[in-house]
Amino acid sequence: MLHNILDLFLPNVCLCCRDHFGGLVCSNCLGSISISKISSSRVRGVDSVTSFTEYKGVMSQLIQYYKLQGFTSLGSTLGEYFLSSMMCLDWTSSVIINVPSHSKRYKERGFDHVTTLYDPLAKTLDLEFASLLKRTRQTPALVGLNKFERINVMKGSISSIDPRINLEGRNVILCDDILTTGTTLSECAVTCRQLGASSVHAVTFAEVYDV
To answer: Do 92 and 71 belong together in one domain?
Structure first.
């Protein structure tokens, strides 16, 4: 814990390879993340999901440091690294919605881990995230649960922040960090369609293949 705190304020080694270079992640480790546009239609209620790398190796290490250990600047680092690939998607005609965390998780982290990741894209394209969804209850961590367990945990856990929101005829893009089983995205899609969305697509940075 002390080592992580010191690295947070006085970073002098790469978090992944521990090489002394004066930052949180060296160019060699960051460059080892292979970017490849991956399209999937396996998520119930979501027309398509686009991811850009597999959740393994350096990518999984950085996401865990980012989300779980407070290295918040890694969000911008990853956002910049994937920026050119994400700019190839059509963002302009859609309502862009971040997948929400429970308010307790926000307080624990101190930041919105999804919008921070997408911040370089939002600034470059002048996009605005519509935080229209919320968690209705705090759910246990999904790590280690199979697909059917995740479905039971997440069922009915997403709602709109205001039932008067109208997405009639609109295309929605849901943004998240990782696609695992797609259970959370599916619950978000259900709510968006209840609000009138004609289509729901999703974008994630990484996808877990072995689930």
So the answer is: yes
How many other CB atoms are there within 10 angstroms of residue 57's CB atom? 14
Beta-carbon neighbour count of residue 98 at 10 Å? 23
Q: Cα(206)–Cα(44) distance, rounded to whole angstroms? A: 18
Residues linked to residue 95 through DSSP beta bridges, in sequence order? 172
Domain count, the chain: 2
If asked whether residues 92 and 9 sit together in one domain, one would say no
The predicted model scores a pTM of: 0.86
- Is residue 98 a contact partner of residue 175, using CB atoms and an 8 Å limit? yes
Could you tell me the residue range of the domain that residue 166 belongs to?
33-207
- pLDDT tens for residues 85-137? 999 999 988 999 999 987 787 788 888 899 999 999 999 999 989 999 998 87
Q: Would you mind telling me the total number of residues written for the chain in this entry?
A: 211
